[in-house]
Amino acid sequence: MKKQILCYTDFSENALNAINYAIKLYEQESCVFYILNAFQADREASDIEALVPDPENENYITAKKTSEVGLKNIVAIINSNDNHIYKIVSNFNALLFALKDTIKNNNIDLLAIGTNKASDIESGNGIPTLSIMEYITECSVIAVPGDYNFSGLKNIVLPLDYKEAINEINFTELLVINKLYHPEIHLVHIKNEFNLNNHQLENKTLLESIFKGLKYSFDTLKLMNINKSIHLLIDNKQYDLIIFLDEKSNYIGNELPRSLRKQIDTHLSIPVLLLNIKVAS
């Protein structure tokens, strides 16, 4: 079964770079890429309610044509790959609604997005990258810095506190990437306690089972502030990708200060992959 990947574009260079990154990352994988553009006509759209198009409205006709032509131009310039199929989606809705709608209708496995420019965030144009990452809960999300060029994956870092929901299905995307590139996986415990409790020890044992046979290591950042530690990991040139488990109460969520949110949006130096958490049945 082909992997279903959604790439959002607002026709910016950052968005195009994210599309090219995803294509290169999965160049050896059989994939269907959906290239999405969300457009509006003459009224502000809601993130929770679908817009109803008026086929006779001139503004709608113009906006739709601009969107479709732009999408076709992107498909024409991206690198072709016999393993990949490209489909365009021009969605008459607000961005967040369009993303959820497309993910639901196409059983998307992964959403790839580019990070915003600082000027866009400060001027109120565009939606902060982390807001999208927090809003999308149906699939994994990867955010790619606008100036980041893919050159393979040698080192991946995954910060943990061993309190997360450890289940092999939650590491599906990481295991796929490992099969493609066989990177060194650094499981970093940001330690703010002296000893692991029984639950944490059980989770560490589960991790050893899940990553058995892979190149991985358990590393520890002792007695460091969690937010400062993540800053260091994101800025570390040793790593090619940083991965988080999508738990809103953990690193990506309430404990993430505004300064770090802004860094993810505008000053990210390496791609960030947010793994979708599936509740065990």
Task: Give structural notes.
This protein starts with a strand and ends in a 6-residue tail after the last strand. Strand 9 (241-245), helix 9 and strand 10 form a beta-alpha-beta unit. With 281 residues, the protein is α/β, with parallel strands linked by helices. A ten-stranded mixed beta sheet has the order 3-2-1-4-5-10-9-6-7-8, with helices on both faces. The protein contains nine helices and ten strands. It folds into two domains: 3-144, Rossmann fold; 155-266, Rossmann fold. Residues 118-125 and 252-257 have low confidence and may be disordered.
CATH topology-level name of the largest domain = Rossmann fold
Unreliable sequence segments: 118-125, 252-257
For the record, what CATH class of the largest domain applies?
Alpha Beta
Q: Provide mean pLDDT, rounded.
A: 83
Strand tally: 10
Number of helices, counting only DSSP H or I runs of 4 residues or more: 9
Could you tell me how far the N terminus lies from the C terminus, measured between alpha carbons in angstroms?
23 Å
Beta fraction of the residues?
15-25%
